Inverse folding.
């Protein structure tokens, strides 16, 4: 997904923002980073960071108290991470059938990644849960970093006189390092293993340090939010998932009233009506007007899911009318066609409903 929607799309947006004020929201499936075998049709999720020994439980409590994150917050964060990976696989993709069972497995130690589960144990769990594989959270650790900077802000007294008062800006960086494994029931082997790092920054402001701290969410809530990102990220790694993005289009063109009328229809969701008007503008003899109309017709085709049609219109805008934005858009569309082919390959084993 990153390869397809970063550099070229960012450049496209930067170019269009100077000339466009209208956009449309599009949702599409992006391929998984790691394809799973065709015989893996159903999965259960599992949490394997539950401490096995009293010593490890003691160290978990000690760590939570010492760091200020709170006692038991890593356990709660891990549970949330497993919940989200299951929800994301079930709701944001249709690659797998996800069972409601969330297995709780003993095994956490001071090591970050434990040795893989024994193949026979995996096969037994899969047989009992009636699934083809397991998605297991096998490592989870949070780290909190607090920084602050002193500053001032301007206030006015009753007479309107301005003066400076001290302020404090606090930032909390909450980082989570997680480790997932996906096992297949056929042989009980590891199909994928990933170590992930996710973080979010939370900020607060106040007249002094304690006041600024009070503006931050509790550490447990910060861990929960980052854990959600980690779970969603791993789901996208192993299953094609929906991504959201925007496409800008030209709302106007000088000396062509039809372009403005079409944009009004597109903004209202009447893309068929907008296309009819853009097709009329595309016959304009002025290349700039025709180029913008061709470009908008490419966007309209993409909105309908017609990528070949979108490419045809974008080519006309780029090469017939020398529309520079269309050349960038054409690269994005070609990337989408390649991604769509990968998605179709990854989903070919999924039974049709």
């Amino acid at each position: 997904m990153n390869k397809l929607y970063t550099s070229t799309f960012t450049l496209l947006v930067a170019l269009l923002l100077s000339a466009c004020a209208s956009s449309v929201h599009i949702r599409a499936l992006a391929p998984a980073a790691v394809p799973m075998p065709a015989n893996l049709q159903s999965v259960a999720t599992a949490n394997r960071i539950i401490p096995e020994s009293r010593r490890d439980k003691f160290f978990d409590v000690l760590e939570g108290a010492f760091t200020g994150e709170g006692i038991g917050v890593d356990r709660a964060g891990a549970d949330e991470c497993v919940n989200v990976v299951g929800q994301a696989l079930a709701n944001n993709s249709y690659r797998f059938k996800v069972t409601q069972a969330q297995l709780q497995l003993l095994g956490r130690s001071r090591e970050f990644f434990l040795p893989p589960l024994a193949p026979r144990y995996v096969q037994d769990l899969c047989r009992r849960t009636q699934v083809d594989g397991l998605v297991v959270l096998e490592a989870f650790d949070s780290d909190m970093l607090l920084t602050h900077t002193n500053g001032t802000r301007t206030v006015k007294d009753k007479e309107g006189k301005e003066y400076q008062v001290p302020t404090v800006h606090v930032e909390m960086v909450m980082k989570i390092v997680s480790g997932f494994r996906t096992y297949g029931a056929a042989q009980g082997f590891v199909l994928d293993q990933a170590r992930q790092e996710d973080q979010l920054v939370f900020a607060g402001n106040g007249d002094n340090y304690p006041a600024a701290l009070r503006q931050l969410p509790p550490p447990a809530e910060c861990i929960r939010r980052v854990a959600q990102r980690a779970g969603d990220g791993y789901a996208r790694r192993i299953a094609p998932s929906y991504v959201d993005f925007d496409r800008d289009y030209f709302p106007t063109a000088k000396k062509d009233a039809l372009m403005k009328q079409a944009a009004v229809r597109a903004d209202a969701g009447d893309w068929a009506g907008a296309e009819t008007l853009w097709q009329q503008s595309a016959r304009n003899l002025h290349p700039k007007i025709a180029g913008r109309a061709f470009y908008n017709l490419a966007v309209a085709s993409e909105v309908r899911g017609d990528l070949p049609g979108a490419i045809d219109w974008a080519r006309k805008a780029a090469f017939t009318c020398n529309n520079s934005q269309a050349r960038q858009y054409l690269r994005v569309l070609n990337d989408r066609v390649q991604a769509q082919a990968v998605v179709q390959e990854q989903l070919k084993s999924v039974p049709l409903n």
